[in-house]
Specification:
CATH architecture of the largest domain in chain A: 2-Layer Sandwich
Radius of gyration of chain A: 27 Å
Largest sheet of chain A: 8 strands, mixed
Strand order of the largest sheet of chain A: 1-5-6-11-10-9-7-8
Largest interface: A-B, 101 and 101 residues
Shape of chain A: elongated
Oligomer: homodimer
Low-confidence stretches of chain A: none
CATH class of the largest domain in chain A: Alpha Beta
Structural class of chain A: alpha+beta
Helix content of chain A: 25-40%
CATH superfamily of the largest domain in chain A: Bira Bifunctional Protein, Domain 2
Mean pLDDT of chain A: 95
Distance between the termini of chain A: 52 Å
């Protein structure tokens, strides 16, 4: 028979088992972390009616969409989890309680040009808090704590959460009479890290934006405000009283900073950064970025912010919110690429492999059942192979313990158990063997998928 | 602004938060159960190249596929998890260890005619054991144990796993010289439960199949074999020696039955059922169905079997396997529809809602952090609302405990904590309050998503 060559599409991540276990462990820890903050899990369809997903209108997104018809229906695959959330909240508004806190971890689709580290199918891991009419600023102050504790739970250490407030930016540009040009300016200022202040000034005073030297210098002075959080806040106080929005944004930023230590975020994992703007037409208050200190070139690994109107394309209700998103597939790719994945983590499909050495398998099966009842992931190996091949299989799947059950063991009510890491083999009563394995499992429970030395 | 009506496509399940928690709990318990048997998690793309998914050729499946082009590429959404597994194993053969045991829980797509309880996007929860060249019969014997323990973990009680062996069926029809007609006969026999033996005989002797009375009576006699597992096996022994395949199938069935009690499957949850055939062109040995005793009309909630060649369309390698699949979305729908979901389960987004009663939130935030460190899912409620509205929110989200932190509590190092189920309120030191909540969480850990009284 002619064979079809098996292949996986480019831009689609498909992991080998060991890596999949590490990825799944990350997902599990994200779920746990989000749950601890009172977010409820949500799952929405991957396919939606195109006109629902495109309610906001097209742009770059529309070109990247996977869109097709089935029967008479114009369908699209979701390209993020925010638009489906906006639809969900508008559709189920009457059945929800606000503030509505949900997390969603799921696949989204963008037909981007394929390149290394870019994916067309990728997981996003989002949380959002949605208010009905209003939403208290404390929700914005809690987000850095969630980011901090989530990445710490994954094992990451050297990262920094950068925060700004769009009201401060908008207010500042209003002071300069540059509200109309604020978008262009912010896009330029965003390049500061990459191109430096001189080139930023050249762009600001260049043909496209056309500022004169005075305002350009004011802007460069503003975005040069740096230092500890209190220093930055103090410097910003110097601008107070000239624009209402600015003052409000400064109050919000001060509140976010004020509760940091109560929320347990160490000072060195947090910075006010006036160059951050993010999603210019969407965010309206606090904005967040998260960068790996040793890999700034990767860009933000967790971003988001405050918005005033989640579902404006679907409902008259005013639904302000704050949310963040982790691009999990890309993050995983980068972590693997940069050697951050924990090679010591137990990624075996089982904690124990039982090798029965007798024709009657009943005693081996009974011990396997006993182990499983004790929460030990157990594989019974019954293939007709040579002993050496069986041990080689145990080695290859990386199982921590191999248990041998022969006539002598069965008669004596014991098992021979081999620790595959040390090579040590001992004969133990069933209960003690089960305890030995459980102890190892409990010790491994704190293993993180990331090692950041 | 004109609004886009928010809607979710028909045939696509989208759950409200409480139901989503129950669904997710089922997924979590499936993952745990499958893991205990040494299956490793896998995740493959939802989109595959059409020619890869269609390697086997079309038929009914092809018509139902979500198929489209993006750029020049002919793409399709997977319609099951078996074909992607076949591709995966062929593609990554060199990196896998056999027997390869994997589970996968993911969405699949079939553009079926929309009707109540049928879904176009639905979760399948599959396990498969794949051998390289050979696969021992004990793997087939273990499957009923996995089915039994998995559904029991979900809380289901009144179900039965029905087992047959295709070699027995094929052998039996070969004895009668009816191999050519075996497919048609099995499809007819499969209707026995619905239409009864007389109508089955009428169909067998009718124009389409055209058996004479003798063979038809033989068949009816054969499929009428019933009783305890040992009785059925004894009756089948009467046919031994007339067909090699039959004898082999009988040996296999006897082995599966033999190890049942060692694997901990109670006799009353298992039956040999000679009318079961399943996927005629695919399964080659043991086949499984699982039915809810009180709802046979639902059909099988977990099915599968042994097959000889998983990846024959992709590789020359002989890869026999055995697997089962649960149609999770439909199962969940049926369970909800029939009142099987556990209404007592804690589906709140948090275990505790903290209501700060002071301007400075630092003490409330610190207590929230303490609870989260103790694994208590905690929501801090800081919206500016009246007390009554806050309590009504707590009621609506179903949170088990509300904690009040006012000046007096903060001074005294205590909290007021209200048990929302009993209405009882008490003042406790922080640690004791945390312990009280933890105790409730631990008590709830054994709650099953299904209640089958």
């Amino acid at each position: 028979m002619a064979k079809q060559k098996p292949r996986t599409l480019s831009g689609f991540m498909e992991l080998l088992p060991e890596k999949q276990v590490q990825f799944d462990r990350m997902v599990e820890l994200l779920r746990r972390s989000y749950s601890l903050y009172g977010f409820t899990p949500l799952d929405t369809p991957i396919i939606e009616a195109s006109e629902v997903l495109l309610a906001k209108g097209g742009g770059e997104t529309e070109k990247q969409m996977y869109r097709f018809t089935k029967g008479d229906t114009d369908l699209s695959l979701r390209f993020d989890l925010t638009v489906p959330l906006a639809k969900y909240v508008a559709l189920h508004y009457a059945d929800l309680s606000f503030p509505f806190r949900r997390f969603q971890i799921g696949k989204v689709y963008r037909g981007e040009r394929a390149q290394r580290g870019r994916f067309r199918e990728f997981y996003q891991a989002d949380i959002d808090v949605i208010g009905d009419g209003k939403l208290d600023i404390v929700n914005e102050a809690e987000i850095p704590a969630i980011i901090y504790n989530t990445f710490t739970a994954l094992g990451l250490r050297r990262f920094q959460i950068r925060v700004n407030n769009r009201k401060i930016l908008n207010g500042f540009y209003a002071m300069l009479g540059l509200t109309d040009k604020a978008g262009d300016i912010m896009r330029t200022v965003d390049k500061l890290d990459k191109i430096g202040p001189d080139k930023v000034k050249a762009l600001l005073t260049g043909e496209d934006i056309g500022l004169s030297d005075g305002p350009a210098d004011e802007i460069l002075k503003f975005i040069a405000i740096q230092g500890g959080n209190q220093e930055v806040l103090a410097a910003l106080e110097g601008y107070r009283g000239r624009n209402e929005g600015f003052d409000q944004g400064l109050d919000e930023l001060a509140t976010v900073v004020k509760y940091l230590s109560a929320f347990g975020v160490p000072e060195d994992h947090f910075a006010v950064d006036l160059t951050i703007a993010r999603g210019l037409d969407y965010y309206t208050g606090t904005v967040y970025e998260t960068t790996m200190l040793d890999h700034p070139e990767i860009g933000s690994i967790c971003s988001g912010g405050r918005y005033d109107n989640l579902s404006e394309y679907y409902t008259e209700k005013q639904l302000p919110g704050v949310g963040i998103s982790i691009g999990l597939t890309r993050l995983f790719f980068v972590l693997e690429d940069q050697g951050y994945l924990n090679g010591e983590m137990n990624t075996a499909p089982a904690d124990t492999l039982i090798l029965p050495m007798t024709g009657d398998l009943a005693p081996a099966i009974a011990f396997a059942s006993q182990l499983r009842q004790a929460g030990v992931r157990t594989q019974l190996y019954t293939e007709q192979k040579k002993f050496k091949q069986k041990m080689s299989y145990a080695d290859k799947i990386g199982v921590p313990y191999v248990v041998f059950l022969g006539e002598d063991e069965i008669k004596g009510g014991v098992v021979s158990i081999k620790d595959m890491a040390t090579g040590q083999q001992q004969t133990l009563p069933l209960d003690q063997a089960a305890n030995l394995i459980r102890k190892k499992i409990d010790a491994q429970a704190s293993q993180t998928p990331i090692i950041d030395p």
